[in-house]
């Protein structure tokens, strides 16, 4: 790719720099990729061709791998080009596989794509130069560095050292740099069968014989350990008095016969039991000769195995709306934000007619409205004992802990933006409304608070036909639509609105039927069209949320209409989400901290609508109306 036609260039990855996940890329690890052209995608999203933003040519250098990137002519490609030119996106990250490593050093690999990302793991990866086409011949250049350590796509590592994305995809690759003897021993261990595997190969008759052998061995061991006080010759005689495989054992009651086996199997096959272990326990309780024959029968069963090996699955609330909030809000490099408005709605601000010879009067003073918002630090802190980190080998527990903390932090920020964190005033952990101003609790100048009137909706629907019996879902759906559309008359925000509501409210509206039993809205798309919104997001955190307004009325939140581009999140350099870790020698543990220092507020008047339902309190007259 000729240098004159690229859109940007920079380091895809740097050599000899330790990444956040502990890996260090060595010199010439990707030497064979020199001169190759790879796709440029957004955030390693490989499941949609629309995420391909362009392509880049790789150049292997002494310091690392350099890339000359060219965006394509698609809508997303041009959007990415604008984001890079304006400095909104500052980080690069590579996706590589077929990696070979030695003690945390990446020696070889194949770069499959380079991504534009919000943050990366290799602190040396950045976009160094941006070319704006159409400028003079020299070209306007800008050096853009990331504010946070950049992150390679290899935040998770497979057995064998191959890099992969966080969704656990990727191919396994053997670690050719391990010691040959160690590799052979590991392979031998993998090929060895467990006791459980061998046990499953036995027939039922063979298992019966094993039961008998174990029962006799337990008894014989008891004799050998001193339960028989005779001399050693007598003990030896007792040990050879019989063959443990003899079927005629009338003198010993602690043994398992063929009829016992059949009875146990019949019990296990019954619908009320269904487990061989439970069947043996039930049979032993009702048969004295087995009551003490198998005191620890569970030892014969194989170990438990994970259905899905690796890191435990997370049980979380729906995170789709969280991503929409974090990505949809306007970002500002200034954390102390201010909004100012000139209110021209006063009655005295009018033009006047002139009468010849009369003195002209002043129009009147314009009322100025101003609001400032300061930042607050929001954090998550945790620790892991080093012994646990070393002992947990089936997945990267440190990265798992970091991902968990980051998800919790993002959800907390998104919740504070939409409805506040819900903590009581005076709580030390509270995210103050003066720093992160929630849309729901914001002043009426910024958020329009609209109530639904179910009784009025029912009266409007049935009209004079008072015998008409409309379903509750239909009445509530019409009440919501009516209230939201009437509130839109006051809306002065920008662009199209999105609707964030409780899952229950969405289901109520989708289940609305007319008098003939037909669904009113066949899909979310039909409902979105009726509400005049672009998207509908369900938010579990909205469930059972109440506030008390200025008139001491208790209002229940149903949903929020907002275009989040009217909400500004401010953070100065260094205030963005940052990760810290420290080792505590005294307690032999790693401490982890992830934090950000931001401010947030709506920046346009009447730019959001809060849909509510009156549930209690004493209604009062609003003097402002």
Give a description of the structure.
This protein is an alpha+beta fold and 625 residues long. The chain has four domains: 3-189, Alpha-Beta Barrel (Serine Protease, Human Cytomegalovirus Protease, Chain A), CATH 3.20.16; 196-300, no CATH class; 321-343 and 369-430 and 569-602, Major capsid protein gp5 fold (2-Layer Sandwich); 447-567 and 605-617, no CATH class. Helix content is 26%, strand content 24%. The chain has helices at residues 75-85, 180-191, 195-200, 204-227, 232-239, 258-269, 276-285, 288-291, 320-328, 386-391, 397-418, 454-462, 472-487, 503-510, 524-531, and strands at 8-14, 24-25, 37-42, 52-60, 64-71, 91-102, 105-117, 126-130, 156-157, 163-164, 330-332, 337-343, 367-373, 376-385, 447-451, 498-501, 536-538, 546-548, 553-562, 567-570, 578-584, 589-602, 608-617. Strands 1, 2, 3, 4, 5, 6, 7 and 8 form an eight-stranded mixed β-sheet that branches. Strand 4 (52-60) and strand 5 (64-71) form a beta hairpin. Helix 6 crosses helix 7 (276-285). It is extended, with a radius of gyration of 35 Å. The model is unreliable at 131-181, 223-253 and 619-625 (pLDDT under 50).
């Amino acid at each position: 790719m000729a240098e004159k036609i690229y859109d940007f260039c920079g380091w895809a990855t740097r050599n000899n720099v330790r990444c956040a996940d502990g890996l260090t890329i060595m010199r010439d690890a990707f030497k064979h990729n020199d001169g190759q052209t790879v796709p440029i995608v957004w955030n390693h999203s490989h499941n949609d061709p629309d995420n391909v933003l362009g392509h880049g040519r790789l150049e292997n250098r002494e310091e690392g791998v350099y890339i000359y990137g060219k965006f394509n002519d698609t809508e997303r490609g041009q959007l990415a080009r604008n984001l890079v030119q304006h400095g909104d996106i500052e980080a690069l990250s590579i996706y590589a596989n077929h990696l070979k490593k030695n003690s945390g050093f990446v020696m070889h690999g194949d770069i499959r794509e380079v991504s534009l990302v919000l943050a990366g793991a290799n602190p040396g990866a950045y976009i160094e130069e941006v070319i704006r086409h159409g400028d003079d011949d020299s070209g306007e250049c800008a050096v853009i560095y990331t504010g946070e350590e950049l992150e390679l796509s290899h935040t998770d590592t497979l057995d064998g050292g191959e890099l992969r994305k966080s969704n656990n995809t990727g191919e396994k690759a053997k670690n050719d740099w391990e010691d040959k003897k160690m590799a052979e021993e590991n392979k031998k261990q993998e090929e060895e069968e467990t006791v459980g595997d061998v046990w499953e190969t036995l027939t039922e008759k063979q298992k019966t014989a094993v039961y008998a052998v174990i029962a006799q061995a337990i008894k014989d061991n008891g004799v050998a350990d001193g339960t028989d006080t005779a001399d050693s010759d007598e003990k030896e005689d007792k040990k050879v008095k019989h063959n443990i495989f003899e079927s005629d054992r009338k003198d010993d009651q602690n043994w398992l016969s063929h009829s016992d086996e059949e009875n146990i199997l019949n019990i296990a096959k019954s619908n009320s039991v269904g487990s061989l272990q439970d069947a043996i326990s039930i049979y032993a309780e009702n048969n004295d000769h087995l009551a003490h024959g198998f005191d620890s029968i569970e030892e014969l069963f194989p170990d438990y195995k994970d259905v899905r090996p690796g890191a435990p699955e997370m049980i979380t609330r729906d995170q789709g709306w969280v991503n929409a909030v974090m990505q949809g809000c306007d970002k500002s490099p200034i954390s102390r934000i201010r909004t100012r408005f000139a209110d021209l709605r006063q009655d005295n601000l009018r033009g006047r007619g002139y009468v010849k010879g009369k003195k002209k009067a002043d129009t009147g003073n314009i009322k100025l409205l101003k609001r400032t918002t300061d930042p607050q630090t929001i954090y998550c802190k945790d620790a892991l004992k080093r012994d646990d980190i070393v002992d947990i080998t089936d997945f990267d527990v440190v990265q798992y802990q970091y991902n968990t903390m980051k998800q919790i932090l993002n959800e907390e920020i998104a919740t504070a933006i939409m409805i506040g964190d819900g903590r009581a005033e005076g709580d030390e952990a509270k995210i103050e409304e003066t720093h992160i101003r929630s849309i729901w609790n914001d002043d009426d100048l910024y958020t329009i608070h609209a109530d639904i009137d179910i009784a009025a909706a029912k009266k409007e629907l049935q009209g004079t036909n008072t015998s008409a019996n409309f379903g509750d879902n239909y009445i509530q759906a019409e009440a919501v639509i009516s209230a939201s559309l009437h509130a839109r008359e006051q809306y002065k925000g920008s662009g199209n609105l999105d609707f964030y509501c409780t899952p229950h409210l969405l289901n109520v509206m989708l289940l609305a039927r007319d008098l003939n039993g037909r669904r009113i809205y066949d899909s979310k798309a039909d409902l979105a069209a009726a509400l005049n919104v672009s998207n509908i997001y369900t938010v579990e955190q909205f469930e059972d949320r109440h506030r008390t307004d200025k008139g001491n009325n208790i209002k229940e939140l149903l949903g929020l209409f907002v275009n989040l581009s009217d909400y500004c999140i401010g953070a100065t350099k260094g205030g963005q989400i940052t990760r810290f870790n420290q080792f505590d020698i005294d307690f032999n543990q790693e401490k982890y901290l992830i934090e950000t220092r931001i401010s947030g507020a709506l920046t346009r008047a009447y730019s959001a609508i809060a849909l509510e339902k009156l549930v209690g309190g004493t209604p009062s007259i609003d003097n402002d109306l």
